[in-house]
Design brief:
Blueprint: E1 5-10, H1 18-34, E2 39-44, H2 46-50, H3 57-74, E3 82-85, H4 91-100, H5 105-109, H6 112-120, H7 129-144, E4 149-151, H8 157-173, E5 183-185, H9 191-194, E6 196-197, E7 200-204, H10 219-227, H11 248-256, H12 260-272, H13 277-303, H14 306-334
Parallel strand pairs: 1-2, 2-3, 4-5
Antiparallel strand pairs: 6-7
Helix pairs in contact: 3-13, 4-7, 4-14, 7-8, 10-13, 11-13
Bound molecules: tryptophan.
Keywords: Aminoacyl-tRNA synthetase, ATP-binding, Ligase, Nucleotide-binding, Protein biosynthesis
GO molecular function: tryptophan-tRNA ligase activity
Protein name: Tryptophan--tRNA ligase
Length: about 350
């Protein structure tokens, strides 16, 4: 039977928050522990992060460690999952260069996720070419490991589609079957999308808005953020009837509370009047802390020894290099540019 291989990753532009946890991290840990996969690679995509942070390498560099701590704290296990840093696998850059010859500029410019990002990032007239190019580099990330299964959010669909096109085109052009066409794996569709920032139901958690709850937040920080959450601005006195729609606290309870019945009862009470915001918020603090406490404690422990974390990343990157090198050799063979192979 063919091998089942996972590859996924994150850009290290900030610490990971509970939206990441519920939308992807929790699922990765489940996949890891299912033992259904032959190999699992999780990549810290620093090179991709640099495509729009070229002038701020320190931010990227610092967040490599933060993201690695988040990974370990939620339960990714380096014995089972190879965690590595993208820039430490130069084979990926080399593959990208060859793949770029198979992709037209207009194809890159049509990528809807990249288009949205370009608008959000206010590049103006100066969109870095590396940024428009990053989906090609992402195809290299995926194909270098012959990954079959890519657990990502919906916004990554265009990248997976392009990767499939590149793999197909490469195999056809060079008469090979070196590259594997991956499948996207949508874990819990929409959940992270449904999880808004603390400031309102229409916002998404984002580092720049400081409206997210981070895995690294202390209990006090988390509690303060819950207490600041947007509720129903017309719910002024406890006796007043309150609205659930647009109420961030209930949106979070819907996602995180295990006791769904209790949440439904609270909603009814809130709508009728007589249930205060603070009471609902205190319940959310309790619910969140049940999830976050073990993660926070493990993270604090690991953060005392950053050197150990870097060692783990070095070992993972070494493994990743070996695997990517194998694929690169096959790619160069297929392209007939492996000149010294038989010397
Ligand atoms: N683009 C992904 C993100 O923004 C990160 C990423 C880079 C990735 N390379 C990847 C995800 C390969 C999956 C597979 O989060």
């Amino acid at each position: 039977m063919d091998k089942k291989i996972i590859l996924t990753g994150d850009r290290p532009t900030g610490r990971l928050h509970i939206g990441h946890y519920i939308g992807s991290l929790r699922n990765r840990v489940e996949l890891q522990n299912s033992n259904k996969f032959n190999e699992i690679f999780v990549m810290i995509a620093d090179a991709q992060a640099l495509t729009d942070n070229a002038k701020n390498p320190k931010k990227v560099q610092e967040n490599v460690l933060e993201v690695a701590l988040d990974y370990l704290a939620v339960g990714l296990n380096p014995e089972k999952t190879t965690i590595f840093i993208q820039s430490q696998v130069p084979q990926l850059a080399e593959l990208s260069q060859y793949y770029a010859n198979l992709v037209s500029i207009s194809r890159l410019e049509r990528n809807p996720t990249v288009k949205t990002e370009i608008k959000q990032k206010n590049f103006g007239e100066s969109v870095p070419s590396g940024f428009v190019f990053y989906p090609i580099s992402q195809a290299a990330d995926i194909t270098a490991f012959k990954a079959t299964t890519i657990p990502v959010g919906e916004d990554q669909a265009p990248m997976i589609e392009l990767t499939r096109e590149i793999a197909r085109s490469f195999n056809q052009t060079y008469g090979s079957n070196v590259l594997v066409e991956p499948e996207m794996f949508l874990a819990e569709e929409g959940i992270s999308r449904r999880l808004p920032g603390i400031d309102g139901i229409n916002s998404k958690m984002s580092k720049s808005l400081n409206n997210g709850i981070y895995l690294a937040d202390s209990y006090e920080e988390m509690k303060a953020k819950v207490m600041k959450m947007y509720t129903d601005p017309d719910h002024i006195r406890v006796e007043d009837p309150g609205k659930i729609e647009g109420n961030v606290v209930f949106a979070y309870l819907d996602v995180f509370a295990k006791d769904k019945q209790k949440v439904e009862e609270m909603k009814a009470h809130y709508q009728k009047g007589g249930l205060g915001d603070v009471a609902v918020k205190m319940y959310l603090v309790e619910v969140l802390d049940e999830i976050l406490k073990p993660i926070r404690e493990k993270r604090e422990e690991l953060a005392k020894n950053p050197e150990e974390v870097y060692k783990m990343l070095a070992i993972g990157s070494e493994k990743a290099r070996a695997k990517a090198q194998e694929t690169l050799e096959e790619v160069k063979d297929a392209m007939q540019i492996n000149y010294f192979k038989d010397l």
